[in-house]
Specification:
By secondary structure, the chain is mainly beta. The chain has a domain of 175 residues. It is built from two helices and 22 strands. The strands form five sheets. It has a ten-stranded antiparallel β-sheet with strand order 5-6-7-8-9-10-11-12-13-14, with no helix packed on it. The N terminus is likely disordered.
Length: 365
Amino acid sequence: MRSTSALRAFSFAALMFAPALAIAQVKGAVQQGKPDASRVDPDTKKALQVPDYARWRSIASPAISPDGKWVAWSYTQVRRDEELHIKQADGDRDIVVSGGTRPSFSDDAQWIAYYIAPPVSAGSGGRGGRGGRGGAPAMPTPTAPAPTPTPAPGRGGDGAGAAPPRRVELMNLATQTKTSWEDVAAFEFSKGAGYFVVHRARQQPPPRNEGTDLIVRDLKTGADRLIGSVSEFGFNKSGSMLAYTVDASDDAGNGLYVTDLKAGADRVIENAREHYSRMTWSEDGTALAALHGLDADTLAQRANSIVAAVNVSSDASGMKRVRIMPGTHGVPATFAISEKGPLVWSTKNDRLIFSLKSQDPSTDR
């Protein structure tokens, strides 16, 4: 019994002193100059150099298909072409597109469209749409690439200061077949993925008129339709109708139009040799409006009116058109309806919200 008690006391003492012994061994090792594996000498870290900054990559323009089966993103890098990745979420397919950026999926997840930016050329200016850069120096500056300017939805580039035109590619995700268009300012899928539209960029230097070609592709048949001199465009909520304004070089054919995409029938909402702008659909896609007017040498503001149409559908007989101008519908006769402010429908499609500005004589005479 006495030997057993002594053994237990010895074991307990060994357990109590084991941590102290281990700590003492570590301290002794450090004092003897032996390296501690758990510590990192800060002097051994690699310092970043200026050229290392150019190797950094960042993710831009992430997108997920509506069914969640595809993801897309772009890798951006200083003075390097962007690289678009289109990858299956539960699969091995990873499609890489050099220069691809700003991807957009159709709502049936069968198609993807994206821009192809002009390539970065050694010793020349930077890629279009990312801000001009001079020739790359031997030691690149540690700056991130500027973001790609985004044109306003449904409008072509505005000339000075606008992003340079780029190519757009449309890809069928099942077959990976591609169709491309050059010199594009904007593109859009319709609701239901029945149609895809491409709006060409304006020529440089920009002409007086703002209209450019609009290409409407039927995604089921692959047929393209060309509409000329389009300045603004937009699908209604259901994607069954496409509205657009025309701004031609000689003002012939200027106006507000709507197309029944399924029937292929065009309808003239308003037609005049005036400038049309601020085209807008109501939230439910059954009412349409736009400003139109002319600049007068004697007036400071453009003399605008509003053309509005309600009950816009495939049945043209139910549509009603209203014209709003200064001196009517409660608009003061001494004010101008300004094209510089928004044009918005109320939720019940019974009111329009727009901007007014005092109409004064021109001071440029």
